[in-house]
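[agent] plan:
  1. take the single chain provided in the ticket
  2. run structure prediction with default settings
  3. attach structure tokens to the ticket
  4. add a short note for the reviewer (M.T.)
[agent] executing step 1
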Amino acid sequence: MPKYLTITEAQQQLPNWPDDLVTEPAIVTKDGKPAIVALSFKQFESLLETIEILSDSEFMKQLRSGIEQAQKGETIDLQQLKSRVKPLTSIKNGACRISSYFDCASTTTFF
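[agent] step 2 finished; step 3 output follows
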């Protein structure tokens, strides 16, 4: 849960933020209303990655398809998976992440 601070409190506590923001974000208020959100760099990176994933319409389509297949019981065991799939990677902004797995022998999608 974020902690709420006035601008004056935030100014006083600013030197401690590198340590304090690791555990929880801070919301700085102005005139009693939220004005600024402060969070650790790690949390910021995590939010950006989440936004990137959710913005990837093809990935989300594949994810939904995989969830539907799992809910229908259309699954395979780990040995079958290892023998039938290869990872696909997506390179964006110089960073590489494994985005999904595709069954090389059929149209089944794995995540």
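[agent] step 4 note for reviewer: The radius of gyration is 21 Å.
[agent] ticket updated
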